[in-house]
Amino acid sequence: MIIQTKSDIIPSEITPKEVFDNRREFIQKAGFGLLVGAAGMVSNSLYAGTISSGTTEGAGRLVGRANAPAIYKPGGTRQKISNYSKTSYGAGEKLTAYDDVTTYNNYYEFGTDKSEPAINSKLFKPSPWTVSIEGEVKRNKIISIQDIYKLAPLEERIYRMRCVEGWSMVIPWIGLPLAQLIKWAEPTSNAKYVEFISLADPQQMPGVNIPMLDWPYNEALRMDEAMNPLTIMAVGLYGEQLPNQNGAPMRLVVPWKYGFKGAKSIVKIRFTEKMPQTSWMKAGPNEYGFYANVNPLVEHPRWTQSSEKRIGAGLFAGRIKTQMFNGYTEQVGQMYAGLDLRKNF
Amino acid sequence: MSKFLNTASIFATFNATPNRKQISWIKAFVFALCLVPLLRLFWLGFQDNLSANPIEFVERSTGFWALFILLATLALTPVRLITGKVWQIQLRRMLGLFMFFYACLHISTYLWLDFSFNWADITKDIVKHPRILVGFAAFVLTIPLAITSNNAMVRRLRERWKQLHRLVYLIAILAVVHFWWLVKKDIREPLLYAIILIVLLGIRIYYKKSVKQTKINHKAHNPNQQPV
Questions:
Q1: Do B186 and A304 touch (CB under 8 A)?
Q2: Would you call B53 and A311 a contact, using CB atoms and an 8 Å cutoff?
Q3: Contact B53 A213 (CB under 8 A)
Q4: Collapsing DSSP states into helix, strand and coil, what is residue A92?
Q5: B51/A115 CB distance under 8 A
Q6: For chains A and B, what is the number of CB pairs under 8 angstroms?
Q7: Share above pLDDT 90 across residues of chain A, in percent, rounded to a whole number
Q8: pTM
Q9: Pick from A165, A212, A319: which is nearest to B185 by CB?
Q10: Of the residues A98, A126, B35, B154, which has the maximum number of CB atoms within 10 A of its CB?
């Protein structure tokens, strides 16, 4: 409901500051001639918001056409992402503070306490990085993170993230629609599911030495879920390349599903005909299903799912109601028509 | 636990029993020590340093200290059984009440900060989630123990007081299970407390059995003599 662009909204209210700043720079540098182009950029990003919330066509292609491709800069320190366009996703949501987003992480490869990944991932090397594409594809391929950056213009998507443990955040991700990566991967008609496999490097990831989950961590989506315009491969947040503890250099973000669906530090994408068994499904089949859609009506044996704590709201803020599909019913609800969500949790 | 046990073991090593005055000093010290976790929470709270999820932080912290102090309480008798010292038993009531104090803070955090006294949601949460049910049961069982902890009640209830306060074993088991079911997959921490609890209860059972055995042996050898 929140990501829908209102038609009566005045452009200055939703045009991101950066775009405005860019425009002024353009005008100053190149004069009137570029004004047209810059205005085009602004309208493109507005248009993208409308399009992507309404149709299944990838919005990425329409966004930031005027932008040069963003370049991946290797290194573990904080790196700004130079070129990405803002979208109207999440307009009006209060962002969760950067410090909270980067110090409260479930990333078991770096430790099970939520404060551990930020500490234990300090020496992690997200570069050089390649992702291999295999399974039901025309041919197996390998792509570097630098090339993934060039696959499609990067967009900022402000999404709510609901953890199965009953807390939530609002995160300004930067990424590209997964659909763009999938198109590039050229899956065959046999591909019904996409599986995402994370890195499991015992040298860099202390948690992998403990047989807690079936390493490497894997997650999966049905093909239509993967192609949904909401689904992104995130490569950054808060205008910067992904911090290691958030899944550098590339992670999945599926905002209508519980956070654990978002596999981090992905090294392999496999297309399959059969529904893959994910790490959490294997760890607790009665607790974690394949779909893991945010659903306040389906209880979890450990945590209340009808309400959630918003991180950063403070000690006395209480809980907020959890929304069906985390509030993205309009964009994703039709994919589950006729599916018993109690059985297929 | 280490701090307290060290105090006990230091005395054991020197084979000294503290006198009345020393005991009141020890009591004051343990009392102050038991307040440290609460003061720490206030300190972190004032500094806005209670992690990204302060409610969970306070819940976890108060829950942890309730369990910790409970295990410390249950360690007093094994210390007596092993060392023969009895003075430390005088700390038991205070520790037990501190356990109750932290348990109260723990459940208040849950009812107030976490669920804003939304009783419909709370009831649903307790009924639907075994972890919460077990924790809630443990808390309810501590209430009669806290109420009957004064001298008057001890005198009034006599033998029944002893029987009633055996509930503490059940409470400890429920508390460990409550913690165990909280964690998704990494059971190392609850496992540690489970092992400590098993050891503490095991020592009791071992000594009880061996005392019985001695009595039986004693009886067999001197059929006329009454066991002491």
A1: no
A2: yes
A3: no
A4: coil
A5: yes
A6: 72
A7: 74
A8: 0.80
A9: A212
A10: A126
DSSP codes joined into one string, A43-110 = HHHHHHHHHHHH-SS-SGGGTTTTSPPP----SSS--B----EE-STTTTPPPPPHHHHHHS---GGG
Would you say how long chain A is, in residues? 345
Give the mean model confidence (pLDDT) for residues B60-83.
96
Q: CB of A73 within 8 Å of any CB in chain B?
A: no
Tokens representing residue A265 in the block: 């530090």
pLDDT score, position A6: 45
Task: Write out pLDDT tens, residues B201-224.
Answer: 999 999 988 887 777 776 666 555
- Which of B25-29, B75-79, B186-190 has the lowest average pLDDT? B186-190
Among the partner-chain residues B114, B124, B131, the one whose CB lies closest to the CB of A302 is B131
Mean pLDDT in residue range A74-98:
89
Tokens of B21: 């005055």
pLDDT tens-place string over residues A198-215: 999 999 999 999 988 999
- Separation of alpha carbons B35 and B27, rounded Å: 13
Output the pLDDT for position A56.
Answer: 35
HSE (CB half, 13 Å, CA atoms) of A195? 20
Hey, are the CB atoms on A299 and B182 less than 8 Å from each other?
no
pLDDT digits (tens, 9 = 90+) for A114-173: 999 999 999 999 999 999 999 999 999 999 999 999 999 999 999 999 999 999 999 999
* Interface contact A75, partner B, CB < 8 A: no
Task: Give contacts of B124 with chain A, Cβ < 8 Å.
Answer: 304, 306
The DSSP call for residue A262 is S
Name the residue in chain A with its Cα closest to that of B58.
A315
Nearest CA among A126, A114, A331 for reference residue A228: A331
**Eight-class DSSP state of A80:** B
Question: Taking CB atoms and an 8 Å limit, are A316 and B113 in contact across chains?
Answer: yes
